[in-house]
Amino acid sequence: MSKLVTIQNTQLPIIEYKSQRAITTDMLAQGYGTDSKVISKNFNRNKNRFNEGKHYFKIEGSELDNLRSSLRGVQISNKARSIYLWTERGASRHAKILETDEAWNWFEALEDNYFNQAILQIKSHKDEGSGLPEFRKAKAIEIQAKAIQIQMENVKKIFEWATNLSDNARQTIIAGLINPIAGSEVIPLPLITEKHYTATEIGKIFGVSANKIGRIANDNKMKVKAYGDTYLDKSPYSNKEVESFRYNDKAIKKFKEILVAKQESATNELV
Predict the structure, then answer these.
(1) Strand order in the sheet with 82-86
(2) Phi and psi of 156, rounded to 5°?
(3) N or C, which end of the chain has less CB nearby within 10 Å?
(4) Which of 158, 251, 240, 237 is nearest to 198 (CA)?
């Protein structure tokens, strides 16, 4: 039987996987006042914002069999071929996506009474035996601050020539440069609320070239906020990065209207 911890009058079994505490989808859904299907759907919609090993662990095969037998206090269906275990960062992401008071209140309780209890024990043990002189700690902080300053200068240079980038693209660039140095997610990645498509992807939908999609967009002044956002992509012809406009669902409808109208016009001319 797994050890239990009480979170807002609800007893949860403690799950430890790869030296850190984690929580199942069902347990997360119950605490957040939603359904496990909603948690799964939100994950699939924002999958590029979750990193395996950082935000979650996917357990399957023999590893799942071993987990099922070791966690006897956790209900895992015998029919399940895989399950997800969410880390503290993964649980936080789901609270952000749901954006409800119930989810945030329960995450805070989870953070204080479930995740942080194990972290505090580890930190206490490390601090007692580290013996690292204070000047070395200060030097490490100074080096980190200089590295962040350099990256912010790089960000400034990028934005000087990439002037049309969307807010989401700008935040993603800053997060990608700063977070690895800070060692934590000090700059959160933006949550994507709508899907965007490249000209190539839209061309495949309608059976035309990406160049034709680009020409239609230019002719009809579609490269504006209403139809998508500008991102920074790697050029297909070199190692340089270039501004690239990606289109939303509204743009796809517009492309369809234009292409259908052109097809009908061509048919009428033949008649």
Answers:
(1) 15-17, 20-24, 82-86, 56-60
(2) -60, -40
(3) C
(4) 251
Rounded to whole angstroms, the Cα distance separating 176 from 239 reads: 18
Measured CA angle at 46 (ends 105, 104), to 5 deg: 5
**pLDDT 10s digits, 180-221:** 777 777 677 666 667 888 899 999 989 999 899 999 999 999
Secondary structure element (H or E) that encloses residue 117, with its range: helix 116-130
User: What share of residues in the chain are helix, strand, coil (percent, to 5)?
Assistant: 60, 15, 25
How far apart CA 94 and CA 104 sit, in angstroms, is 10
pTM over 0.70: no
What residues contact residue 90 under an 8 Å CB cut-off, 6+ apart? 50, 54, 55, 56
Give the Cα separation of 219 and 226 in Å (integer): 16
Q: Which residues, 6+ apart, have CB-to-CB distance to 245 below 8 Å?
A: 199, 217, 223, 228, 229, 230, 231
Q: Which amino acid is at 74?
A: V
Residue pLDDT, tens place only, 119-143: 444 444 444 444 556 656 666 677 7
